Amino acid sequence: MRRNSFTVGVIVVIALGLALVYGGWRMLDSDGEQACVACGRPLHSHARVAGLVDGEEQSFCCLACAFMDHRQTGHRAKVVELTDYYSGSAIEPQEAFLVVGSTVNHCLRAEPLLDQHKGAGQLEFDRCSPSVLAFSSGAAAREFLGNNGGSLSTFDELAASRR
User: Fold this and answer.
1) Could you tell me the residue ranges of all domains in the chain?
2) How far apart are CA 101 and CA 24, in angstroms?
3) Can you list the alpha helix ranges (DSSP code H) found in 100-137?
4) Cα 139-141-143 angle, rounded to 5 deg
5) pLDDT digits over 99-146, tens only?
6) What angle do CA 89, 91, 94 make, to 5 degrees?
7) Looking at the chain, which runs of residues are DSSP E strands?
8) Which one of 1, 62, 88, 106 has the largest count of C-beta atoms within 10 Å of its C-beta?
C-alpha cells in the first residue's frame, strides 16, 4: 500500500512539473509568432513586417526578408504593415520613410562566421541585407540616417527596385 502511494505521488509530481513547463512555454510563445515565417529568425519588435501570403497574415523579421521571400519562392507577400523603428507602432507602407543599408541590422548573426580552416569567414549573402528600417516621420528617418548611414527611400521605390 505504501509503495502504491509513493508511486502515485511521484506520478503526480512529474505531471505537475510537466504542466508547469508546458504552461511556461505557452506563456513565452503566447502569440505564436516568435519567428519569421521566411527565415525562422526572431521577430524584432521595431522591425517586424506583416504581410498577406495567399490571403493569410504572416510575420516577417524585416522588409528585406519579405522581399527576398518573394524572389526565392515566388510567393508574393502583400506588405500590409511596417513597424516604426523608434516607437514600435504600426505604419502603413505607403506612409513610411525607409532607411536602406544602415549600419543597424538586427537580423544578422551575432556569432562569427568560420571558414573551413576555422578562420574568420566572410559573409557573402544574407537574405536580410541590406537592412531596411521604417520610420513614421521623415525627420526621424533623416536623423537616424545621419547617425547610422544608409539611404532614404519610399516603400514604392524600394518595392519597384526589388522586383
Assistant:
1) 1-30, 34-161
2) 38
3) none
4) 70
5) 999 999 888 765 555 556 666 655 556 778 899 999 999 999 999 999
6) 170
7) 49-53, 56-60, 78-83, 90-91, 97-100, 132-135, 151-154
8) 62
- Give CA–CA dist 143/153, Å, rounded: 14
DSSP lists the bridge partners of residue 35 as 42
Largest CA distance in the chain: 77
In this structure, the dihedral spanned by the alpha carbons of residues 133, 135, 139 and 144, taken in order and rounded to 10 degrees, is -30
Cα-Cα end-to-end distance for the chain: 73
The rounded distance, in Å, linking the Cα atoms of 62 and 58 is: 12
The reported pLDDT for the residue numbered 12 is 65
> Phi and psi dihedrals of 8, rounded to 5?
-65, -40
Peptide linkage before 112 cis (omega within 30 of 0): no
| Backbone φ/ψ region at 74: left (φ over 0), alpha (ψ -120 to 50), beta | left
